[in-house]
Design goal:
The protein is mainly alpha-helical and 82 residues long. Helix content is 70%, strand content 0%. It is built from four helices and no strands.
């Protein structure tokens, strides 16, 4: 990561930086495409494993974990790598 990009990241060691990190960051066109790619990939993953996982609490936990991973990926995009 270039120093310029690193300096643009919120400093999570400060209150202001932590609050900025949690703000909604509206995606520009490039980020929107990245979000759509990530979301499509995770939807495909769930679709591919749906029949392989028995119904029940474990399936719910697995789907929630996949969703959490998807959200983390989208957060990285929104926060430009942070």
């Amino acid at each position: 990561m270039a120093l310029r990009d690193e300096l643009a990241q919120p400093d999570l060691r400060t209150r202001k930086g932590a609050l900025d990190f949690l703000n909604y960051h509206a995606p520009d066109e490039a980020a929107l495409i990245e979000h759509q790619t990530v979301n499509s990939s995770f939807q495909l993953l769930v679709d591919n494993i749906w029949e392989s996982i028995p119904d029940g609490l474990g399936k719910t936990v697995a789907i929630r974990a996949i969703n959490r991973a998807r959200m983390e990926c989208n957060s990285v995009i929104a926060n430009k790598g942070a």
